[in-house]
C-alpha cells in the first residue's frame, strides 16, 4: 500500500487540564479518513514554545502532512503564529485580503471599532500560503518544508471546519498520495462485548490481514466495525462486503442496523419513512431523550413535544397520573410510567410515546429502589410495553443508558 499519512497536533493548555474537550482532531480524522488519508498520530500539547517545536519536528518524521489547530488568536498566550514564522524562516507581514476581511467583520458586521490586537489577525508569515477563513478573523496557513506539508488552522471548531471543508480537503488529493479506506458497521443491542466477541470468533479469525475488526461499546450497545485498506477500490469493496455479510448473519438476533448511524438518527428515519410521530414524558432524564431526537435536522416532522415531569406535581396536574398511584406504587414504578406514556400520547396526539422514571443518583436510592433503578414504557394505540433496568453507574451514564434503552424500545415498537 503506497499512501501518505497525516498527524494532528492540537495546541492549548485548556486541552491538557481537561477544561476543553478536543473535538477538533476527532472531526478532522473522520473527514481525512473519508478521502483516503490515514492518521499516524493525534497529540495535544500546551502553550509551550519548546513543546510545540518538538511536536512539529517529531510528527514531520512520521507523516507527510501535519495539521495544527489552536493558538492563532491575537492575545499573548497565542504563540502558534510567531512560532511557525520562526520555524519556517519567515517574517510577519500584513496580508491585504485578510486585512480587508477583518476590517469588514468589525466595521460593517459587528459595528465595532478595530484595535491593534484585531489588526494582528491580518499578520501572517511571508513563507506561508494563506487559507481564507470566512467564519472568523484568524486565517489558516499552509507551509511546505523538506517535502512535508504543514497546515495551521484556528482552534475555534466552526472556523476550523469551514476552512477544512472549503479549502483544505478539496486540494489535498493533488498534494498527497491517498488510498482506499472502506468501513462497514453493525450496531447491536442486547448483548455484551465479550459475548459478542465469542459469537463472531470464527468470522474474526477468518479475516484477511487487510481487514480489521473493532469492537466499539457505548451506552449499552456495541458497534462492530470492519475496516479495509487497499489500493484497488473495487476489489476492496467486494472483499469487505463478503466478510461483512458473514458477520451480519451471525449477529442477526441482536442487530439494530447495518450502518454507522446513532440510535436517535435511526428513530428519526423510521418515523419519517412511515409518516408517524412520537412524544415523550420524561422524569429522570429531564428532557434528554427529547434533546437527542430533536438534535436531528427535520425532527419537527415526527416529534410533537415532551412533558418533563420532574416533580410529581407535574405528573398529576399535566399527565393525569393519580396521586393514589404515586402514593401506592411510587414515581419509579411500572404503574406510573404506563400512565405517563398513555396520557402523553393522548395529549400530544402522537402515534408513539416514551415515558421514563427512575433514580439517577448519586443519592435518592433505597433498598427496594436503588440508584440506577429505571422504569421505561413505550406506547402506541394498541399496547404499552414496559421494562425495568438497574444501571448502577454515575448520574450521567445512568441518564444516557436510560435514553438509549428507551429509544431502542421505541425502535422495536415501530418495527412491530
Chain-wise SSE layout:
Layout: E1 5-11, H1 13-16, H2 24-34, E2 38-45, H3 49-62, E3 65-69, H4 80-87, E4 92-94, H5 96-109, H6 116-119, E5 123-125, E6 129-131, E7 140-145, E8 148-153, H7 157-171, E9 180-189, H8 193-199, H9 201-205, E10 211-218, E11 221-230, H10 233-250, E12 255-257, H11 263-274, E13 278-282, H12 288-294, E14 303-308, H13 312-317, H14 323-329, H15 334-348, E15 352-358, E16 373-379, E17 384-390, H16 395-415
Parallel strand pairs: 1-2, 1-3, 3-8, 13-14, 13-15
Antiparallel strand pairs: 4-5, 6-7, 7-8, 9-11, 9-12, 10-11, 15-16, 16-17
Describe this protein's structure:
The protein starts with a strand and ends with a helix. Strands 2-1-3-8-7-6 form a six-stranded mixed sheet, with helices on both faces. A five-stranded mixed sheet has the order 14-13-15-16-17, with helices on both faces. It has a four-stranded antiparallel sheet with strand order 10-11-9-12, covered by helices on one side. It has three domains: 5-174, Molybdenum Cofactor Biosythetic Enzyme, Chain A; 180-257, Alpha-Beta Plaits; 263-415, CinA-like (Maf protein). The chain has 416 residues and is α/β, with parallel strands linked by helices. The protein has helices spanning 13-16, 24-34, 49-62, 80-87, 96-109, 116-119, 157-171, 193-199, 201-205, 233-250, 263-274, 288-294, 312-317, 323-329, 334-348, 395-415; strands at 5-11, 38-45, 65-69, 92-94, 123-125, 129-131, 140-145, 148-153, 180-189, 211-218, 221-230, 255-257, 278-282, 303-308, 352-358, 373-379, 384-390. The protein is globular. Helix 2 runs parallel beside helix 7 and helix 11 packs parallel to helix 16 (395-415).
Amino acid at each position: 500500500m503506497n499512501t501518505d499519512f497525516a498527524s494532528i497536533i492540537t495546541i492549548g493548555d485548556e486541552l491538557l487540564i481537561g477544561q476543553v474537550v478536543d473535538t477538533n482532531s476527532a472531526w478532522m480524522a473522520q473527514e481525512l479518513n473519508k478521502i483516503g488519508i490515514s492518521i499516524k498520530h493525534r497529540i495535544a500539547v500546551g502553550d509551550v514554545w519548546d513543546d510545540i517545536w518538538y511536536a512539529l519536528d517529531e510528527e514531520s518524521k512520521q507523516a507527510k502532512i501535519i495539521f495544527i489547530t489552536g493558538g492563532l488568536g491575537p492575545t499573548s498566550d497565542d504563540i502558534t503564529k510567531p512560532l511557525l514564522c520562526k520555524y519556517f524562516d519567515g517574517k510577519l507581514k500584513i496580508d491585504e485580503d485578510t486585512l480587508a476581511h477583518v476590517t469588514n467583520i468589525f466595521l460593517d458586521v459587528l459595528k465595532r471599532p478595530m484595535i491593534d490586537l484585531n489588526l494582528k489577525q491580518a499578520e501572517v508569515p511571508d513563507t506561508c500560503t494563506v487559507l481564507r477563513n470566512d467564519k472568523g478573523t484568524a486565517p489558516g496557513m499552509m507551509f511546505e518544508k523538506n517535502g512535508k506539508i504543514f497546515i495551521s488552522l484556528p482552534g475555534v471548531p466552526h472556523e476550523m471546519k469551514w476552512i477544512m471543508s472549503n479549502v483544505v480537503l478539496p486540494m489535498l488529493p493533488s498534494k498527497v498520495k491517498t488510498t482506499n479506506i472502506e468501513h462497514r458497521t453493525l450496531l447491536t443491542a442486547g448483548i455484551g462485548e465479550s459475548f459478542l466477541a465469542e459469537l463472531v470468533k470464527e468470522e474474526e479469525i477468518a479475516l484477511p490481514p487487510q481487514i480489521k475488526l473493532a469492537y466499539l461499546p457505548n451506552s449499552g450497545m456495541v458497534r462492530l466495525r470492519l475496516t479495509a485498506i487497499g489500493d484497488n477500490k473495487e476489489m476492496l469493496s467486494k472483499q469487505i462486503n463478503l466478510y461483512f455479510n458473514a458477520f451480519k448473519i451471525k449477529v442477526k438476533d441482536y442487530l439494530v442496523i447495518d450502518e454507522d448511524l446513532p440510535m436517535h438518527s435511526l428513530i428519526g428515519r423510521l418515523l419519517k419513512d412511515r409518516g408517524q410521530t412520537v412524544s415523550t414524558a420524561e422524569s429522570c432524564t429531564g428532557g434528554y431523550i427529547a434533546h437527542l431526537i430533536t438534535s436531528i435536522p427535520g425532527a419537527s416532522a415526527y416529534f410533537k413535544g415532551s412533558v418533563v415531569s420532574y416533580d410529581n406535581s407535574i405528573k398529576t396536574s399535566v399527565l393525569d397520573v393519580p396521586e393514589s398511584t404515586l402514593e401506592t406504587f411510587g414515581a419509579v414504578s411500572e404503574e406510573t410510567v404506563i400512565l405517563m406514556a398513555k396520557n402523553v400520547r393522548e395529549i400530544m396526539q402522537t402515534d408513539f410515546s416514551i415515558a421514563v422514571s427512575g433514580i439517577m443518583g448519586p443519592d435518592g436510592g433505597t433498598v427496594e429502589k436503588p440508584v440506577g433503578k429505571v422504569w421505561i414504557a413505550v406506547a402506541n394505540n394498541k399496547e404499552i410495553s414496559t421494562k425495568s433496568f438497574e444501571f448502577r453507574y454515575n448520574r450521567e451514564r445512568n441518564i444516557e443508558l436510560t435514553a438509549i434503552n428507551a429509544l431502542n424500545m421505541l425502535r422495536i415498537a415501530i418495527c412491530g
